Amino acid sequence: MKLMKEFYFYTEGLTVGYHGVPLIKNIEVRLRKGEILTLIGPNGAGKTTILKSIIRQLAPIGGVAWLDGEEIGKLSGNAFSKKVSVVLTDRVKPELMTCEDVVATGRYPYTGRFGLLSKEDWELVYEAMELVHVEELRERDFTKISDGQKQRVMLARAICQEPDIIVLDEPTSFLDIRYKLEFLSILQRMSRSRNLSVIMSLHELELAGRISDKLLCVKGDKVDRFGTPEEVFTPGYISGLYGMTAGSYDEGTGNLELEPVRKEPEIFVIAGNGTGTAFFRRLQREGIPFAAGILWENDLDCPAARALASEVVLERAFSPIGAEKIERAEELIDSCRRVLCTLSLEETGEWARKLRELVVYAEKKGKLGERQDHG
């Protein structure tokens, strides 16, 4: 009873799979109205299977899912359609239907036995199409538009259904970066303004971490973690969840980096304040091993430097540069064939003075190259 009052959607011991064979066991989800839940995990982990069980395409093997205090499996088809809307482009195979016709099918749970739309129904259809910017597709054949356009039309269909929960399976897969952000922004805005709950799966971890109130991490035959992004994205967790064997993922920044060049550094990069990251990536693309420093541990360049450099000379955040750090930086300068600086060292203060001294040291050694502008 307590769970019914506190959570709009929740599961108890939910086990899902195919033909009686469990794939993921004992799924425990807790979701309030207006919250966004995102499923993440490797391909084939079972995220789509969980979503299909929630929307009743698959019968659960065990356990129960509750929606607004009622068992999902016991809701009538019409009652379920008024509460839950689904965005899966492969579920609709319309023939001779315009995009407007497809969006209008979202009103069918409310039209009665004859399926006739009222003036108010059509107003909701037009409003939904304008909300996701597909009104210019109104008269287009749904089968002849792009996959990204279909995804937005399907979102409009879900919106005009006026559900309490929208369920989406990889909704941004066919969208370019503009429409990815626009699509997710619409979902976030609706979750806030209309108290709409969202359950979806995403491959884009950085977007999942930014939009989600809760994350459900699927690994093996179980839910490995369930919690807020801050609870889930702890150092090293994502690499383990996905079994990463190359490259790295920084949970704090969402940066995904390729494998570093694992050789003795040839170039020493004096960077900081985010000026070095793009240059680090360029060196990695060109196959040139490098070292970097001297950076505070909380510097914007630090995540990429840690991931891509052969060695990084670090100092504690907001601490003065110690003599041993200067010594190590000079040793690296001595061993590298060239030194590059991405920083403008015109600032005053002890930190900038110490880095200027490093630049002078490199110049005396005849190793200083032209200053590299970041980006």
Structure in words:
The chain has 2 domains: 2-248, P-loop containing nucleotide triphosphate hydrolases (Rossmann fold, 3-Layer(aba) Sandwich), CATH 3.40.50.300; 258-364, Rossmann fold (3-Layer(aba) Sandwich), CATH 3.40.50. A hairpin with a 2-residue loop joins strand 10 and strand 11. The protein has 14 helices and 17 strands. The N and C termini lie far apart (56 Å). The chain has 375 residues and is α/β, with parallel strands linked by helices. It has helices spanning 2-6, 47-54, 77-83, 99-104, 119-131, 147-160, 177-193, 205-211, 229-232, 237-242, 277-285, 302-308, 323-335, 350-364; strands at 9-18, 21-27, 30-31, 36-40, 62-67, 70-71, 84-87, 165-169, 197-201, 214-219, 222-227, 248-249, 256-257, 267-270, 290-296, 311-315, 338-341.
